Amino acid sequence: MLSPSEIMVTSPDQEFLNRVIELLEMNIMDAKFNAESLTSALSMSRSAVYNKFKEYTGLSTGEFIRRFRLKRAKQLLETTDLTVKEILYMSGSNTASYFTKCFKKVYGELPKEYQASRRQEDKATKEALL
């Protein structure tokens, strides 16, 4: 018999978002994975998926995917020594200029600048601990 603490209750909305994140994680490096691919994988109509994204996040499906990819790129810039070019491919982009433009629009600085400033912060933190 299951105890109440062992029963996980999730709303359909949470299940939807969990499935979306799972699909995006599985396809993050595939530059061709887009809103159409996502709606197909979810077995839902494009308009139903779009409406859910607008309701839950305020973003279109395509913008949500783009932000998800940019967030992954940001994490990689913060935590690895990979080049910006390697990171843009790992986050599902195949055009450096578009990636750079989108990154700057969302985070306010170019990926290379962001990476350099984080490395400088890390260096300062390490020096302060010594």
UniProtKB/TrEMBL annotation:
The keyword Transcription applies. Pfam families: HTH_18 (PF12833). InterPro entries: Homeodomain-like_sf, HTH_AraC. GO terms for molecular function: DNA-binding transcription factor activity; sequence-specific DNA binding. Residues 18-117 form the HTH araC/xylS-type domain. Keywords: DNA-binding, Transcription, Transcription regulation. This is AraC-type HTH domain. The lineage of its organism: Bacteria, Pseudomonadati, Bacteroidota, Flavobacteriia, Flavobacteriales.
